[in-house]
Structures are given as structure tokens and as C-alpha cells.
Write a structure and sequence with these properties.
9 helices, mainly alpha
Length: 214
């Protein structure tokens, strides 16, 4: 046990110097770095991050690498196949539409205007971008005194398919004539003359015939 007397009065205190020296030496040995520790050269290691291995990469087996040329060829081949199939389907729809159009024309000539409308409508189910089908159906509507329906068909042609279509303008004029809308009738005649100035003789003949039908 430690003595409670004053250190100078304790004989064991005389031995304190050697004890302190030992402690100081021990501290110096702990604090002083070894030569190995003071080296500034980086230690080489397989785990060391360098400019070469900073980015993570995956080495791919050349045998398993994707063949871009093959993929491109496959894609283009598929596009060609799809285009060919669409063309074939379009031709088939046109063939069917032609059959219904001819049936509609036959019904129109026989005065079967309602059935003509049905035939032209069936044709339009197959081909929706044919001005002839809309124009023929509009004329059938005019014969049935369904003037507003006729105007709708003519407007579709003029707005979506062919803004200068002569018969669409003339049949539109006929429909407005049937509705006693003289202003719209005159407007149609003005535009058909403007767009087809080289066919004024035919236009005048059509107008005369139309007026005689009233």
C-alpha cells in the first residue's frame, strides 16, 4: 500500500527516480516510429486503386459478345417482312372494296339508292381513303334527299383527302342547293371555278343540268 506520510519521509520515494526513467523510456519507445512506419513509399498491393482499375469493368467472353451486324440484319429483315405483309393486306382490302364499289354503282344505276349507300359504306370499311367512294355515296345521299349526309362526305374529301376535288365541290353545291342555302351553293361554285379554271365548260354544263333537276 502507498504510504500516507510525506514523500520525503518515505524511504521508498528514493527509488522513484529509476522508476520514472523506466516509464519515460517506455513512452519514448511507444511514440517513436520505426523505420518501416516512417517510409513514405506506398505499399504495393493488389487492392490498391489506380487510374487503370478505378473504373469497374466486366470482361466479356468474345464468344458471348452480341453480334451487332447480325442484330441489325435481323431487324431490317423484320421491317421488310412487315412492310410486305402490310402491302399484301392493303391490296386485298382494295380488291374487296372494288367489288362493293361495283355493286354500289350497279344499284345506283337501277335507282336502288339505299342499297347503293350500303355498298359504298361496305367498301369504305375496307378502304377509308378513297375519294371516289365518298363522292359516290354523297351522290346517292343526294338522290335520297339526305343532303346533310352528302355534305359530310364531300367535306371529308375536301378536308382530308383532296381539297380541290372537282366532283366533291359540285356535289357539295348540289346538296346546299337542295337545302336552299344559296350562299353556300355560290361559295362552292366559286371555288370549283377557281380550282378548275380549265374545265369551265364542263362545270357550266353540270350546273345547268343540276338546275334542270330542281
Amino acid at each position: 500500500m502507498y504510504s500516507l506520510e510525506h514523500p520525503q519521509m518515505d524511504e521508498s520515494f528514493l527509488k522513484l527516480d529509476s522508476t520514472v526513467n523506466e516509464v519515460m523510456n517506455l513512452l519514448r519507445s511507444i511514440v517513436k516510429p520505426t523505420e518501416a512506419e516512417t517510409s513514405t513509399e506506398p505499399e504495393e498491393s493488389s487492392d490498391c486503386v489506380t487510374d487503370d482499375n478505378f473504373m469497374a469493368t466486366v470482361r466479356q467472353n468474345p464468344e458471348n459478345a452480341p453480334n451487332k451486324d447480325k442484330d441489325r440484319f435481323t431487324f431490317m429483315r423484320q421491317v421488310e417482312v412487315d412492310q410486305a405483309e402490310r402491302t399484301k393486306a392493303r391490296l386485298e382490302r382494295e380488291r374487296v372494296a372494288q367489288i362493293f364499289r361495283k355493286l354500289g354503282n350497279a344499284d345506283y344505276r337501277q335507282g336502288n339508292y339505299e342499297n347503293a349507300v350500303r355498298m359504298y359504306s361496305q367498301a369504305l370499311e375496307n378502304i377509308k381513303d378513297s375519294p371516289v367512294l365518298y363522292i359516290n355515296r354523297s351522290l346517292s345521299y343526294i338522290k335520297l334527299s339526305q343532303f346533310k349526309r352528302a355534305i359530310i362526305d364531300c367535306d371529308f374529301v375536301l378536308n382530308k383527302l383532296d381539297e380541290k376535288n372537282m366532283r366533291a365541290w359540285l356535289y357539295r353545291a348540289m346538296a346546299y342547293k337542295g337545302l336552299n342555302d344559296e350562299a353556300s351553293y355560290d361559295n362552292c361554285i366559286k371555288y370549283v371555278r377557281k380550282y378548275h379554271s380549265k374545265q369551265l365548260e364542263f362545270i357550266d354544263s353540270f350546273i345547268e343540268k343540276m338546275n334542270n333537276m330542281q
